[in-house]
Amino acid sequence: MKTILIIGIGSGDPRQVTVEAVEALNRVDVFFVLEKGSLKRDMVALRLDILRRYIKDRPYRVIEAPSPPRAPTPANYLACVDDLNRDKQAAFGRMIESELGEGQCGGILAWGDPTLYDSTIRNVEAIASGQALQYEVIPGISSVQILAARHRITLNRIGQPVLITTGRRLKEGWPDGADSVVVMLDGEETYNRFAGQEVEIFWGAYLGTSDEILVTGRLAEVADKINRLRRDAREAHGWIMDTYLMRRIPR
Q1: pLDDT beyond 80 at 42
Q2: pLDDT higher than threshold 90 for residue 45
Q3: Is pLDDT of 38 > 80?
Q4: H or E stretch including 178?
Q5: What integer pLDDT is reported at residue 37 of this predicted model?
Q6: Would you give the DSSP letter of residue 38?
Q7: How far apart are CA 243 and CA 149, in angstroms?
Q8: Domains with residue ranges and CATH for the chain
Q9: Are the C-beta atoms of 28 and 105 separated by less than 8 Å?
Q10: DSSP 3-state helix, strand, coil percentages of the chain (rounded to 5)?
Q11: DSSP letter at 49?
Q12: At residue 39, does pLDDT exceed 80?
């Protein structure tokens, strides 16, 4: 039986890889990576740095394949994600079938925590339905946790809930019943629509890396600064990964 370990590796800082993840890394014979092109080559480099740092006295291989493209502005978002995941399943499935021997252990490194807005578990589950394959999930430190730690805050107020959502869903309006809202995967700067309200924001980009950027304050006062930082960072790196917490200010 082949085994796949889905290993959460945090958001980029090798020091945030857990002891459980390090133990998992040292079980792996072959690591599988979907590479997203030259603009995001530094993300692959971060993965390779983690392997060099933590794998001791054990041979391993790294197998890469191009990551399937996704339409930037799909007419049907859910259908687009389904198509993308099917393409990823096919890519990972081919690599696992051809490069992982019977009885060997493969590894897929997931940014942050693989249980939070990540499709790796679903994709490996689908692959396992067509191959003799078992899999395990090793949790990681997510960008949400790093965001709160960097800003020295808790995600929720005492006795109150916190809601984690996406920029796409936030476009529908502030979630009912939520005082604190964590937003991930926001490529359209959706926070701007709330700049006229009594809201504070705790924003971070490239969390857990040497390029980390942090901004906090009343949204009306810092929204333009965040917009400028996002634009400049995208021009400098070719991509941006950011997360933020918005919280209503009590009257």
Answers
A1: no
A2: no
A3: no
A4: none
A5: 62
A6: G
A7: 13
A8: 2-138 (3.40.1010.10), 143-248 (3.30.950.10)
A9: yes
A10: 40, 25, 35
A11: H
A12: no
